[in-house]
Specification:
It contains 8 helices and no strands. The N and C termini lie far apart (about 70 Å).
C-alpha cells in the first residue's frame, strides 16, 4: 500500500506538468493560427488618420501632412540618419579589439552634422505646415507634440509603414 501511495503524487506531478506544457504550447500556437490582431488604436495604426480625426483636418490639410511626412522620410533616407545606423556605429566600435576614440568622435560629428540639417529642414517644413492650420488646430497639434512619441510616430514612421 505504501508504494501505491508514493506513486500518486508522481502521477499528479506528471499530469500537472503535461497540462502546463499544453497551456504553454497553446499560448504559442493560438496567435499563429488566429493571425496578428489588428491594432485597435488608430494612432498606432495610422498616426496621420488619428491627427486628421482629432484636429478635424480638411482634405487639403491631410494631403499637406502626408506630403510633409514623405519629404521627411526622403530626407532621412538621403542622409542615412536613422537611430539604427547610430546603434550600428556604436556596435561596430565596440566589436573592435582597440577603442578608436578619435575615429568614433569624427564619425559621430559627421552624423550629427548630417542629422542637424535634416532636423532644421524638417522643422522649417513643419513650421510652414502649421501655418496652414487654424489657431485652434495649431494649438492642439502643439499640445500633442509635447509627447515625444507623437512627432516621432507622425514624421518618422518605421520603415515598414512607408
Amino acid at each position: 500500500m505504501g508504494k501505491v501511495m508514493g506513486k500518486k503524487p508522481l502521477w499528479f506531478l506528471l499530469a500537472a506538468s503535461v497540462a502546463v506544457n499544453l497551456f504553454f504550447l497553446a499560448g504559442l500556437v493560438y496567435p499563429q493560427l488566429m493571425g496578428a490582431p489588428e491594432p485597435s488604436d488608430t494612432a498606432a495604426a495610422d498616426p496621420v488618420a488619428a491627427v486628421a480625426e482629432d484636429l478635424e483636418l480638411s482634405a487639403a490639410q491631410v494631403a499637406g501632412l502626408e506630403a510633409l511626412r514623405q519629404r521627411t522620410a526622403e530626407r532621412r533616407e538621403a542622409t542615412g540618419g536613422t537611430s539604427g545606423s547610430f546603434r550600428a556605429l556604436l556596435l561596430t566600435e565596440l566589436a573592435k579589439p582597440a577603442f578608436d576614440r578619435g575615429g568614433l568622435m569624427q564619425q559621430m560629428e559627421e552624423r550629427r552634422a548630417r542629422m542637424g540639417t535634416v532636423v532644421l529642414d524638417t522643422t522649417e517644413d513643419l513650421h510652414g505646415y502649421l501655418a496652414t492650420l487654424s489657431p485652434e488646430q495649431k494649438a492642439a497639434f502643439l499640445e500633442r507634440a509635447r509627447d515625444r512619441e507623437f512627432l516621432r510616430n507622425l514624421l518618422w514612421p518605421p520603415r515598414e509603414q512607408r
